[in-house]
Design brief:
Strands 1-2-3-4-5 form a five-stranded antiparallel β-sheet, covered by helices on one side. A four-stranded mixed β-sheet has the order 8-7-6-9. It is 35% helix and 30% strand. The protein has 198 residues and is an alpha+beta fold. Strand 4 and strand 5 form a beta hairpin.
């Protein structure tokens, strides 16, 4: 959901430590362990296929684990080369998404200024920086969306007047119900709005 959700502490004028009026949530985008894992696996596998295809064409063993020189280039080596090329293109896409940190960003809620700021990184282009600014008065509720089944979805949304619901959690791996309820209740309490969907 969020890499770290922290309510910054501040000093009140009388010297007491009390919760500050700023809530900052860091949202993990594409730079998570599973994406690094799959990008590495796809890169190694695709490189292996491509080296096997080159080995079958040149009749020189370029792999340490097997001897692809015994393969006939047409059709076996050629097909392995196509698999390798397709795999390397997929790996390039995965590494670029990680490099650009697509989906990463933060949610900022400030009671001092009465503002809400949602920021996410997108794909390169004119819409690379996705920023949504609003006021706390326009926030109607925090909505919890839970869908179980083959493709489960568990997410928090911010309902703002005159806008579509804004997702607050990361895309991908669903978070636990306990964590989702805790984060939703914390945010709803901080903003002073109802929590819907539970």
């Amino acid at each position: 959901m969020t890499a770290s959700t922290k309510i910054n502490k501040g000093d009140s004028p009388n010297g007491d430590r009390s919760a500050s009026s700023v809530l900052h949530q860091k949202v993990i985008g594409s730079r998570r362990f599973s994406n690094y894992w799959w990008a590495t696996v796809v890169t190694l596998g695709a490189t292996g296929f491509l080296l096997a295809a080159i080995s079958s064409y040149l009749k020189v063993n370029l792999l340490l684990v097997s001897d692809p020189t015994q393969l006939v280039f047409v059709p076996q080596g050629l097909v392995m080369g196509l698999y390798g090329a397709a795999g390397l293109l997929l790996a390039l896409y995965l590494w670029l998404v990680i490099l650009w940190d697509v989906g990463g960003g933060y949610n900022d809620f400030s009671q001092e200024t009465g503002s809400v700021k949602i920021f996410r990184w997108g794909f390169p282009g004119k819409n690379r920086r996705i920023e949504i600014d609003s006021t706390i008065q326009d926030v109607q509720s925090v909505r919890v969306d839970i869908k179980e089944g083959l493709n489960p979805r568990r997410a928090l949304y911010l309902r703002i007047k005159g806008r579509r619901d804004i997702p607050l959690t990361r895309v991908g791996q669903p978070v636990s119900l306990t964590e989702l309820e805790t984060k939703g209740a914390e945010l709803a309490r901080f903003l002073g709005v109802p929590l819907e969907g539970l």
